[in-house]
């Protein structure tokens, strides 16, 4: 095919997912774009979810089918470890790294609750960021940079406002990120329920 892959043979991917823990709230947001090669395949993919009775937020980036598979596995681990996201993440990362089928999956997860924020990759990594902000996907560096600046220099903003503005900045810069945002939020009152 003269070095050009047919679009149907390319993985469906590209996105921006951002999590911010700020002033008692945890917000995860993502854009809705799915890209197939150099074509936008879908504008409104939902890449963020509430898990474990609404107490854990999760978002994914990467090949869509792979990401859904990993998200389902994480949810199983979360159930097995009664909502302990650190333990569930570590066990998922072990499986991901050693299981022959899972090893081939190309995706990343961001997971968070009121206390913890973790990034999980197929390399067996479970990373806890130094800041209460983390992002994955093609526009992650733009969104994360904007969010860190807003948390530091505009602390009066809510977590939702920071995530929305940061994703807007990423979507204005990254061609694989659109402005069809989806958000999920946990706050202190939900923690008490």
From TrEMBL:
Please give the GO cellular component terms listed in this UniProt entry.
Answer: HslUV protease complex; proteasome core complex
Residues at the catalytic site: 15
What reactions does this protein catalyze?
ATP-dependent cleavage of peptide bonds with broad specificity
What does the activity regulation annotation say? Allosterically activated by HslU binding.
MF (Gene Ontology) = metal ion binding; threonine-type endopeptidase activity
Secretion signal span: none
On whether ATP-binding is a keyword of this UniProt record, the answer is: no
**Domain of life from the UniProt record:** Bacteria
Q: What is its EC number?
A: 3.4.25.2
Protein residues bound to Na(+): 171, 174, 177
Q: Which Pfam families match?
A: Proteasome
This protein's UniProt keywords? Allosteric enzyme, Cytoplasm, Hydrolase, Metal-binding, Protease, Sodium, Threonine protease
Give any single GO term for biological process.
Answer: proteolysis involved in protein catabolic process
List where in the cell it is found: Cytoplasm
Sorted alphabetically, which PROSITE patterns does this protein's record hold? PROTEASOME_BETA_2
Q: Which InterPro entries match?
A: ATP-dep_Prtase_HsIV_su, Ntn_hydrolases_N, Proteasome_sua/b, Proteasome_suB-type
Where mainly found?
cytoplasm
Family matches, as PANTHER family: ATP-DEPENDENT PROTEASE SUBUNIT HSLV (PTHR32194:SF0), METALLOPROTEASE TLDD (PTHR32194)
Family as reported in the entry's similarity comment: Belongs to the peptidase T1B family. HslV subfamily.
Q: What does this gene product do?
A: Protease subunit of a proteasome-like degradation complex believed to be a general protein degrading machinery.
Could you give the subunit structure recorded for this chain? Answer: A double ring-shaped homohexamer of HslV is capped on each side by a ring-shaped HslU homohexamer. The assembly of the HslU/HslV complex is dependent on binding of ATP.
Q: What is this protein called?
A: ATP-dependent protease subunit HslV
Species of origin? Candidatus Cardinium hertigii
């Amino acid at each position: 095919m003269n070095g050009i892959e047919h679009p149907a043979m390319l993985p469906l991917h590209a996105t921006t997912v951002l999590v911010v823990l700020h002033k008692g709230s945890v917000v995860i947001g993502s854009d809705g774009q799915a890209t197939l090669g150099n074509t936008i395949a879908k504008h409104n993919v939902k890449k963020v979810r509430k898990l474990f009775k609404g107490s854990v937020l999760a978002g994914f980036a990467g090949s869509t089918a792979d990401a859904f598979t990993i998200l389902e596995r994480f949810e199983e681990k979360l159930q097995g470890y009664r909502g302990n996201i650190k333990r569930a993440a570590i066990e998922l990362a072990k499986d991901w790294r050693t299981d022959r089928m899972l090893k081939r999956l190309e995706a990343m997860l961001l997971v968070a609750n009121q206390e913890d924020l973790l990034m999980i990759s197929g390399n067996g990594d479970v990373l806890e960021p130094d800041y209460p902000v983390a992002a994955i996907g093609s526009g992650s560096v733009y969104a994360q940079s904007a969010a860190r600046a807003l948390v530091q220099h505009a602390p009066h903003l809510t977590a939702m406002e920071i995530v929305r503005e940061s994703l807007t900045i990423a979507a204005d810069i990254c061609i694989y990120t659109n402005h069809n945002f989806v958000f999920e939020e946990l706050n202190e009152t939900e923690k008490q329920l």
